[in-house]
C-alpha cells in the first residue's frame, strides 16, 4: 500500500480512468485512451513495433508512479512497462466477482483501500437491486447480445451472470468464456426473443443493424419476427465498472416492457430499431 499520495498515474483504458475518478484521482490521471482498442482486430495477434515504441515513449515522458492496463490486448504493453521498471497493474476481469475485485486491486495500488471497498459495496448493492426487481416466478426471455457484427460475435465474460441477475435467459456461453463467434445454427437453435446490439466502437445507440438483419435465415428468428430488436450504448456493458449496473437496468427495462407488463419508457441508453 502506498504511504504517500500518487501524483502521476497513467491509464491506458477509459474504464480504468473512470474507476480512478471514483477513488478521487480525477486530476492525477493521464489517460491514453487511443491504446484501448474498442474494435476487434480480426485475428491480428501482434501490433507493429512502432505502436509499442510510441506507447513506451509517451508513458515514460510522464514519469508515472503507476500505470494501469486492461484486457488481453494490453498485456504486452504491461510486460514492456514492467521491463522499463515502471510500477504497473494489469487487470483482466472476466466475471462479476472479478470486476468487484478490480476495485480493490486498484484501491490497494493507489493507497485508497477504504474508498475501493465502498466502491465494491456499491457495485454489489447494484447487483442485488437488479435481482430484487425481477418479479418472482416471472418468465425469463431468451436474450442474445451482439458486440461485433463481422462476424457475428456474442459477448461472454460477465455478461451471462449479469443478464441472469437482470432476469434474462442468456445465450449459452461457458463459464468465464470471452467473446466468441456465433454460428447461424446456434442462433436458430436458441431462437432468441430479444436481440440487443451493443457494438464495440459504435457511438451511443446510433448503430444501424440493417446489414445484420439481412443475414440468411434471420427472418425466422423469434426476435426478428416479433420486432424486438434494440441497440444499446456499448460503453455501459462492455466496460467493467459501476456503469454496468445502468446498462443492466436498461436491459431489464426492455425485458420488463416486453414480457412483464412494465410500462413503456424512453431511455437515452437504448433504442428500438424495428417499430
Key attributes of the depicted protein:
alpha/beta; 275 residues; 4-stranded parallel beta sheet; single chain; Rossmann fold; globular
Would you give an account of this structure?
By secondary structure, this protein is an alpha/beta fold. The chain has 2 domains: 9-125, Nitrogenase molybdenum iron protein domain (Rossmann fold); 135-272, Nitrogenase molybdenum iron protein domain (Rossmann fold, 3-Layer(aba) Sandwich). The protein contains 10 helices and 12 strands. It has helices spanning 14-22, 49-62, 75-83, 96-110, 113-133, 159-166, 184-190, 210-213, 222-225, 243-259, and strands spanning 9-11, 29-31, 66-70, 88-91, 142-146, 148-149, 152-154, 169-170, 180-181, 194-197, 229-232, 270-272. Helix 1 links the parallel strand 1 (9-11) and strand 2. Helix 4 (96-110) packs antiparallel against helix 5 and helix 5 (113-133) packs parallel to helix 10. The protein is globular.
Amino acid at each position: 500500500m502506498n504511504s504517500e499520495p500518487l501524483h502521476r498515474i497513467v491509464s491506458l483504458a477509459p474504464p480504468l480512468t473512470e474507476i480512478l475518478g471514483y477513488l478521487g484521482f480525477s486530476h492525477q490521471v493521464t489517460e491514453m485512451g487511443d491504446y484501448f482498442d474498442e474494435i476487434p482486430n480480426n485475428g491480428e495477434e501482434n501490433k507493429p513495433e512502432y505502436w509499442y515504441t510510441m506507447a513506451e515513449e509517451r508513458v515514460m515522458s510522464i514519469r508515472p508512479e503507476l500505470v494501469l492496463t486492461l484486457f488481453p490486448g494490453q498485456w504486452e504493453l504491461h510486460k514492456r512497462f514492467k521491463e522499463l521498471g515502471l510500477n504497473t497493474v494489469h487487470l483482466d476481469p472476466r466475471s462479476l466477482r472479478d470486476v468487484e475485485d478490480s476495485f480493490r486491486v486498484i484501491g490497494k495500488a493507489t493507497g485508497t483501500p477504504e474508498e475501493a471497498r465502498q466502491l465494491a459495496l456499491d457495485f454489489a448493492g447494484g447487483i442485488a437491486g437488479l435481482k430484487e426487481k425481477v418479479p418472482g416466478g416471472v418468465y425469463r426471455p431468451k436474450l442474445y447480445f451482439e458486440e461485433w457484427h463481422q462476424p457475428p460475435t456474442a459477448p461472454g465474460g460477465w455478461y451471462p451472470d449479469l443478464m441472469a441477475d437482470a432476469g434474462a435467459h442468456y445465450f449459452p456461453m461457458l463459464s468465464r468464456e470471452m467473446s466468441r463467434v456465433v454460428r447461424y445454427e446456434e442462433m436458430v437453435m436458441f431462437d432468441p426473443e430479444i436481440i440487443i446490439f451493443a457494438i464495440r466502437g459504435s457511438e451511443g445507440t446510433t448503430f444501424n443493424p440493417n446489414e445484420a438483419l439481412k443475414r440468411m435465415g434471420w427472418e425466422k428468428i423469434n426476435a426478428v419476427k416479433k420486432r424486438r430488436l434494440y441497440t444499446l450504448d456499448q460503453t455501459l456493458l462492455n466496460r467493467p465498472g459501476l456503469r454496468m449496473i445502468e446498462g443492466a437496468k436498461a436491459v431489464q427495462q426492455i425485458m420488463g416492457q416486453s414480457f412483464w407488463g412494465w410500462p413503456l419508457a424512453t431511455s437515452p441508453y437504448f433504442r428500438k430499431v424495428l417499430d
